[in-house]
Design a protein that fits this description.
By secondary structure, the chain is α+β, with helices and mostly antiparallel strands. The protein has five helices and ten strands; from the N terminus they run αααααββββββββββ. Helices cover about 25% and strands about 25% of the residues. A six-stranded antiparallel sheet has the order 1-2-3-10-5-8. Strands 4-9-6-7 form a four-stranded antiparallel sheet, with no helix packed on it. α2 crosses α3 (about 50-55).
Length: about 200
């Protein structure tokens, strides 16, 4: 799955396009706040400035790995950027919100997709990971504390120096922010993993 390809996430094309546009606007807003040009951001992220230009215009969606590079360079976090892209209103405030099955900001992740399951500025960011990768991808490192719960399938989570953990459906795992991690399907069959991240890390 390439950075420019549409994820198989079940979202209607017009909703996916709206999300890409909002995500791009948030990235541009933070880049301007940091006083960076596209070329400057490209140098910090090791991504091409034509690709970053497409992202900011809503013509391409970065993968989770690329979004991490972008958010780190901009003093934010991936989940913060995805949460801002999910906001249909400028400020949702502290009130109940509903996210339908065809909603939620989606980006490509290792072996599949990651979809944010919440709107607005909240204390936590729940994300649904769907994939079937049987091989480990590159390590990921989140600034946020994270809680994992396997809804379907079985995965092996590699926590680098902290060891590995095999998780079946119904199993859960917690690790603190800054912990390097990656996971894969234990059988090569599809999995669904709910990840809940602390929203305190990163810049709103």
């Amino acid at each position: 799955m390439t950075e420019n390809s549409a994820a198989h996430d079940g979202l209607p094309d017009h909703l996916r396009s709206d999300q890409q546009i909002r995500l791009g606007r948030q990235i541009r807003k933070l880049r301007h706040r940091e006083g960076l040009t596209l070329v400057g951001l490209a140098a910090l992220t090791n991504l091409s400035h034509p690709f970053l230009s497409q992202v900011e215009r809503g013509l391409a969606t970065p993968s989770m790995a690329s979004l991490e590079r972008i958010s780190t360079a901009l003093g934010s976090s991936r989940s913060q950027l995805m949460a801002r892209a999910a906001e249909v209103e400028p400020e949702l405030g502290n009130r109940p919100t509903v996210v339908r099955a065809t909603e939620g900001t989606v980006v490509t992740a290792a072996g599949g997709t990651a979809r944010l399951l919440i709107l607005g500025r909240t204390a936590f960011h729940p994300m649904l990971y769907v994939g079937d990768n049987s091989r480990f991808e590159e390590f990921d490192q989140n600034p946020e504390d994270e809680f994992l719960h396997v809804i379907e399938g079985a995965v092996e989570v590699d926590l680098d120096e902290q060891g590995t953990a095999g998780l079946a459906a119904g199993d859960s795992l917690y690790y603190p922010g800054g912990c390097r991690r990656r996971w894969r399907s234990l059988s090569g069959r599809p999995y669904r993993v709910l990840a809940v991240k602390d929203a305190g890390a990163g810049t709103p």
